[in-house]
Predict the 3D structure of the following.
Amino acid sequence: MFVIDNIRFELVEERGSAYDEEAILERWSDILNRYDYVLGDWGYDQLRLKGFFDDQHNKANFDNKASTINDYLQEFCNFGCPYFILRRVD
């Protein structure tokens, strides 16, 4: 369980020991608090964080729906990069 700004997230997927709570806290931005899912991926020793909405969320457009996370990993992340997915727990 990961808690930031009184919002709880759970780790739902991890590849390659990517989850590093200290690195997440350093890179976290308040804008991520509004998302249902947060993807973290590592490339060139840098952590990138990207938010996604649940597919039924009224603010979700095609590019930031949770169902497109795999597409994002394939198109915008380094091949085989370590990554993790956090899901907001209300």
User: Anything to note?
Assistant: The chain is about 15% helix and 35% strand.
